[in-house]
């Protein structure tokens, strides 16, 4: 069975430095396949969420702010690539792996590309467990790009900045 032509690639990001590895891979792959990339950020809603987030105002404002953050992230980190590829950006509320699966179904995504790093803690959405759940339930192939080798280089680089 030959590989199908990729038309739409979903690239989830938690806006961390390590998630850039996956997004960059998705952009390069899209360029070679002449495909569209949807850079996708899930604003996680957890149980203690409303209590913590009261100072954030209405949800629409929060989403708008997050959309700006994502836009800045994409423009800063991938300036050399975004003009070469058709890129769309989406921010949604929910739970990371569940949203990623639903998004892939809704958009008829051909491939999900995401980095994984063995971080724990709720501030990192692209934990191993999220990747694992996505792989187990995705409606399309999932490409996992390991980011752990780059961790040292990245932390060195960000200390300089």
Please describe what this structure looks like.
There is one protein chain. About 45% of the residues lie in helices and about 20% in strands. It has about 160 residues and is α/β, with parallel strands linked by helices. It has a five-stranded parallel beta sheet with strand order 3-2-1-4-5, sandwiched between helices. Helix 5 (about 130-135) links the parallel strand 4 (about 110-115) and strand 5 (about 140-145). The longest helix has 19 residues, at about 60-75.
Question: Layout of SSEs?
Answer:
Layout: E1 8-12, H1 19-33, E2 36-44, H2 49-52, H3 59-77, E3 86-94, H4 96-106, E4 111-116, H5 128-137, E5 142-146, H6 151-160
Parallel strand pairs: 1-2, 1-4, 2-3, 4-5
Can you give me a brief rundown of this structure?
Helix content is 43%, strand content 21%. It is an alpha/beta fold and 161 residues long.
N-to-C series of helices and strands: EHEHHEHEHEH
State the major sheet. Answer: 5 strands, parallel
Strand content: 15-25%
The stretches of 5 or more residues where confidence is low (pLDDT under 50) are 120-124
Average pLDDT over all residues = 82
Distance between the termini: 47 Å
The number of helical segments is 6
Counted beta strands: 5
Measured as a percent range, the helix fraction is 40-55%
Strand neighbour order, sheet with most strands: 3-2-1-4-5
Task: Label the overall shape.
Answer: globular
Rounded to an integer in angstroms, the radius of gyration calculated over CA atoms is 16 Å
Structural classification: alpha/beta
């Amino acid at each position: 069975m030959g590989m199908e032509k990729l038309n739409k690639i979903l690239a989830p990001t938690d806006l961390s430095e390590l998630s850039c590895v996956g997004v960059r891979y998705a952009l390069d792959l899209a360029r070679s396949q002449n495909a569209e990339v949807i850079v996708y950020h899930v604003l996680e809603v957890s149980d203690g969420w409303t209590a913590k987030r009261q100072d954030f105002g209405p949800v629409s404002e929060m989403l708008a702010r997050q959309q700006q953050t994502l836009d800045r992230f994409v423009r800063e980190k991938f300036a050399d690539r975004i003009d070469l590829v058709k890129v769309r950006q989406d921010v949604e509320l929910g739970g990371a792996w569940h949203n990623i699966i639903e998004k892939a179904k809704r958009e008829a995504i051909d491939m999900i590309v995401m980095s994984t790093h063995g971080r724990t803690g709720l501030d990192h959405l692209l934990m191993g467990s999220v990747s694992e759940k996505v792989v187990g339930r995705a409606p399309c192939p999932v490409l996992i790009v390991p980011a752990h080798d780059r961790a040292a280089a990245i932390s060195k680089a960000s200390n300089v900045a």
